[in-house]
């Protein structure tokens, strides 16, 4: 028996990275999945992969900056599979990257359109069909950048922080309807979003990510898919409004401080006594 048997899910940004891994895992666990993305070719490939493994999925081209597109993706789930149980607002971009004084207002707004407005649309249009289903699970991909700032990712950090707080206010509003609203805060996960356009590409990014946190490897899309599955499933039926950190420990503290920088060890007394 799968953990999502009989459930119907819509996943945005499912042509690549975490969304792709989640679509494949959700289908493996018995869900029927509407795979959505701007990238039609990538999305169709995910659908074929799911079908080849015996799962159920359809592709719906969706630009998450469009409220009409998001509503259409949710309507497709109901039309195709008869109900909606899970919405995973996951599509993302790095957006406006760089020095604060060089960020254009237009790029700031485009970042928020993908990262913050889209989860709002996803939540808004899931409410009616989930009420009909007797409840549901809405998940959004926030980020550890939404909890702590990241230099050069000002718009991204602010947009993801908004997702964390929207998750909480929506959870309060929708608890009575048995609609749970949670988000995931990934740390550094090896996906095209991280390595596209970066010198050294995927391999260099993997080496850099491995040094960032106590667990010395880059995050994998499957690490996030596993959390998404948990939140989507009935195992998480008493969890709402949570920002689940999946980051190999990057938010625990400063991993760059080593023992030798702390002196000789033992008891360190008042600083005026040598
Ligand atoms: N990779 C990381 O280290 C990391 C860390 C924290 C959070 N995140 C977040 O995880 C989520 C998934 O990203 P990923 O790392 O898997 O990257 P990815 O680039 O592999 O996947 C993102 C997907 O979103 C799609 N997308 C982008 N803009 C879209 C739009 N307007 N409409 C529809 N689809 C669109 C892309 O085509 C792509 O398929 C994003 O929200 C991202 O911000 C990533």
Question: Which key terms come to mind for this protein?
Answer:
about 40% helix; alpha/beta; single chain; 7-stranded parallel beta sheet; binds nicotinamide-adenine-dinucleotide; about 270 residues; Rossmann fold
Question: How would you briefly describe this protein structure?
Answer:
The chain has 274 residues and is α/β, with parallel strands linked by helices. It is built from eight helices and seven strands. The structure holds nicotinamide-adenine-dinucleotide.
Q: How would you sum up this structure, described in words?
A:
The chain is α/β, with parallel strands linked by helices. It has a single domain, classed as NAD(P)-binding Rossmann-like Domain (Rossmann fold, 3-Layer(aba) Sandwich). It contains 8 helices and 7 strands, in the order E-H-E-H-E-H-E-H-E-H-E-H-H-H-E. The protein has helices at 17-28, 40-52, 67-81, 105-133, 154-174, 192-195, 201-210, 221-232; strands spanning 8-12, 32-37, 56-61, 86-89, 136-141, 179-186, 243-246. A 7-stranded parallel β-sheet has the order 3-2-1-4-5-6-7, sandwiched between helices. Helix 5 (154-174) links the parallel strand 5 (136-141) and strand 6. Helix 3 packs parallel to helix 4 and helix 4 (105-133) packs parallel to helix 5. The longest helix is centred in the middle third of the chain and has 29 residues, at 105-133. It is globular and about 75 Å long. The termini are far apart. Residues 12-13, 15-19, 37-39, 42, 62-65, 90-93, 114, 141, 143, 186, 188-189, 191-194, 221 line the site of nicotinamide-adenine-dinucleotide.
């Amino acid at each position: 028996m799968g953990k999502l048997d009989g459930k119907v899910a819509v996943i945005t940004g499912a042509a690549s990275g975490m969304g792709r891994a989640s679509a494949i895992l959700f289908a493996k666990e018995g869900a029927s999945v509407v795979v959505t993305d701007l990238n039609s070719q990538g999305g169709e490939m995910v659908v074929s992969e799911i079908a080849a493994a015996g799962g159920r999925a359809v592709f719906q081209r969706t630009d998450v900056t469009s409220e009409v597109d998001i509503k259409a993706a949710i309507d497709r789930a109901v039309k195709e599979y008869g109900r909606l149980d899970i919405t995973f607002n996951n599509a993302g971009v790095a957006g406006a990257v760089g020095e604060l004084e060089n960020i254009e207002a237009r790029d700031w707004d485009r970042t928020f359109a993908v990262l913050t407005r889209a989860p709002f649309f996803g939540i808004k249009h899931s409410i009616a069909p989930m009420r009909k289903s007797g409840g549901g699970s809405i998940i959004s991909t926030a980020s550890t950048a939404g909890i702590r700032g990241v230099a050069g990712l000002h718009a991204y950090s602010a947009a993801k922080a908004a997702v964390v707080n929207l998750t909480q206010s929506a959870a309060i509003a929708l608890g009575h309807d048995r609609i749970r609203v949670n988000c995931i805060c990934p740390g550094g996960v090896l996906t095209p979003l991280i390595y596209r356009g970066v010198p050294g590409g995927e391999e260099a990014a993997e080496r850099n990510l491995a040094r960032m946190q106590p667990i010395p490897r880059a995050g994998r899309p499957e690490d996030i898919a596993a959390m998404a599955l948990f939140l989507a499933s009935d195992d998480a039926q008493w969890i709402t409004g949570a920002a689940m950190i999946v980051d190999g420990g990057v938010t625990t503290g400063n991993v760059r401080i080593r023992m030798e920088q702390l002196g000789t060890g033992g008891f360190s007394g008042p600083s005026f006594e040598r």
